[in-house]
Design a protein that fits this description.
- By secondary structure, the chain is of the alpha/beta class.
- Helix content is 24%, strand content 29%.
- The protein folds into 2 domains: 169 residues, FAD/NAD(P)-binding domain (3-Layer(bba) Sandwich), CATH 3.50.50.60; 122 residues, 3-Layer(bba) Sandwich (FAD/NAD(P)-binding domain), CATH 3.50.50.
- The chain is elongated.
- The two termini are 22 Å apart.
- It binds flavin-adenine dinucleotide.
- The site of flavin-adenine dinucleotide (FAD) has 28 residues, from strand 1, helix 2 and helix 8.
- The site of flavin-adenine dinucleotide has 28 residues, from strand 1, helix 2 and helix 8.
Length: 298
């Protein structure tokens, strides 16, 4: 929308459906402008409607598979972008906003209970559990421990369930968790099943002990999964510089290591994985693209 309003001819290429993770999130309670909250699908539809109003063209169910930087007389002249349809699109600039994917446990019941007790973001969904008796955090790395500590302000008891024989987060975080009166840690547990109650909401998490095969059941109204986040950057095949976790590195102007290629949102190194910030980064990057095009092409 920002690019189109800057009079740039703008094409969105979307592998799945426009709206990304927002479109498949049940509800947003922290997106500005909606004091009562808004359903993710409705918000995504509104985004698409508003972009269409400014003439943004949208290709859905089409992936971007790569790009080539083009030069004329030794200077940057644009990009040639390859699509999964086999078509090639010429562009003067490219904004990478391919997001990232939260890893899932793959345990039975998980798919059905996402948004009904299973969550991937404590900042987003933790407040729903104010006053809850038990919640569990799956994953004992830095994210799991940090988010687990954060969740103690809502739930009476937070249990961290870790697959390996030790917590993996920093020593400082481990100490904080181990000394916290509301937190417990269980190790060597592999999640087998998420069990729903009669209302179709999460009731408990079943595990087995990887050393003894002993089953356990943890009653929980919420389970927060922090077993990793993979940026959707595989398709780039090293075409731009990534950080140590494979997120796209940018400068303060949102430009990547390749001239004319920008990045914003969850795929960008240092992004906060929040919708409001992803939208803000997209707007800021579009304005930087405008400056870049003015400098390069006049
Ligand atoms: C379950 C859940 C709940 C959440 N709740 C909240 C919340 O309450 N509040 C909040 O602020 N944030 C929340 N978030 C996070 C928020 O949704 C993200 O921060 C935001 O959607 C990131 O936007 P994005 O555009 O950077 O990436 P995404 O939304 O991930 O969009 C990236 C898009 O790129 C597409 N894509 C990937 N690769 C390609 C390719 N090669 N070619 C073409 N298209 C491609 C994908 O299909 C996807 O549609 C939640 C996330 C999840 C998963």
């Amino acid at each position: 929308m920002y690019a189109a309003r800057e009079n740039l001819s703008t094409l969105i290429v979307e592998k799945s459906a426009v709206g990304g993770q927002a479109g498949v999130t049940e509800r947003f309670d922290n997106y500005p402008g909606f004091p009562e909250g808004i359903g993710g699908a409705e918000l995504a539809a509104r985004f698409a409607q508003q972009a269409s109003r400014y003439g943004v063209e949208m290709l859905q169910a089409v992936s971007v598979e790569g790009f080539i930087r083009e030069e004329m007389d030794g200077a940057y002249s644009g990009l040639s972008v390859t699509l999964s349809t086999g078509a090639t699109v010429r562009a003067n600039a490219l904004l990478l906003a391919t997001g990232s994917t939260y890893r899932r446990t793959g345990a039975a019941g998980e798919e059905d209970l996402i948004g009904a007790g299973i969550h991937f973001c404590a900042t987003c969904d933790g407040p729903f559990y104010k006053g809850a008796e038990n919640i569990v955090v799956l994953g004992g790395g830095n994210s799991g421990l940090e988010e687990g500590l954060f969740l103690t302000q809502f739930a009476q008891r937070v249990t961290v369930i870790e697959r390996s024989g030790q917590l993996l987060g920093s020593k400082l975080l481990q100490e904080k968790v181990q000394n916290h009166p509301q937190m417990a840690v269980v190790l060597n547990q592999s999640v087998q099943r998420f069990v729903a109650n009669e209302q179709g909401k999460l009731a408990s998490v079943e595990t087995i002990d990887l050393r003894t095969d002993m089953p356990s059941s943890f009653p929980a109204s919420g389970a927060f999964v922090f077993i990793g986040l993979d940026p959707n950057t595989q398709w780039l095949n090293g075409a731009v510089e990534l950080d140590g976790r494979n997120f796209v590195a940018t400068d303060q102007m949102f430009q990547t290591s390749v001239e004319g290629v920008f990045a914003a949102g969850d795929v960008r190194a240092g992004s906060t994985k929040q919708l409001a910030s992803a939208v803000g980064e997209g707007a800021a990057a579009a304005i930087q693209i405008r400056y870049f095009l003015d400098r390069r092409f006049g």
